[in-house]
Amino acid sequence: MIAGALLIVGALGLSMSNLYEEQHGEAYAEQISNILEERIIAPVAVAETSQTSVKTMQAVCLEGQEYIGVIELPSLSLELPVQKECSDAQLKASPCRYSGSFLDDSMILAGHNYKKHFGSLSALQTGDEVVFTDVTGQVYHYAVTEITSLDAYNTEEMQSGDWDLTLFTCNFNGQKRITVRCERLIRG
């Protein structure tokens, strides 16, 4: 009986901790997103550069973290800052660049399944708009082309294919990754 009560108390404590972490992450992401919007001067359409120029991602450092821009998912009413690097600690604050770059149409973004982070990715529909604005104000428009579920540790499949943008998060039990593949719509 005592062991059962201790398990229940432990489960409640873990649930409360997870809820606090999620609320803190959501509030932090909103705060950083607002600061980034102030720093982005004026969004402009993306212009392709010549093949001889070198493209590099610009970043803005806020509160000790580097951010490369803001991702918007209008159909989910989400707008989130995107960090340049990815770690477990950084994912608690906002989505992160897992690999690739928006400059060469290979970016993969990871986010926690918090309700106001990437928790509703599975609600996206084929054709939904995704907008990424980098810290220089350049706007990249995408459309969702595929929504799938991958095994949790199948990083090879996550990075395979010719997708311009991929978003992913874990499902509720962490065994699968909800994966959204996107194609860029406007090219200079």
Your description of this structure?
The chain has 188 residues and is of the alpha+beta class. It has helices at 2-39, 88-91, 155-159, and strands at residues 44-45, 60-62, 65-73, 78-83, 96-99, 107-110, 129-134, 138-151, 165-170, 176-184. Strands 1, 2, 3, 4, 5, 6, 7, 8, 9 and 10 form a ten-stranded mixed sheet that branches. The longest helix has 38 residues, at 2-39. The chain is globular and about 65 Å long. It starts with a helix and ends with a strand. 28% of the residues are buried. Residues 42-53 have low confidence and may be disordered.
Q: Which percent bin holds the helix content?
A: 25-40%
Count of DSSP E strands? 10
Quick one: biggest sheet?
Answer: 10 strands, mixed
The global form is globular
Q: Tell me the structural class.
A: alpha+beta
Radius of gyration: 18 Å
- SS summary, helix count: 3
Number of domains: 1
Output the helix-strand order: HEEEEHEEEEHEE
Mean pLDDT: 81
Instruction: State the CATH superfamily name.
Output: Sortase
What is the name of the CATH class?
Mainly Beta
- List the uncertain runs: 42-53
The fraction of residues in strands falls at 25-35%
Between the first and last Cα atoms, what is the distance in angstroms? 68 Å
Q: Might you state the CATH topology name?
A: Sortase, Chain: A
Known CATH architecture: Beta Barrel
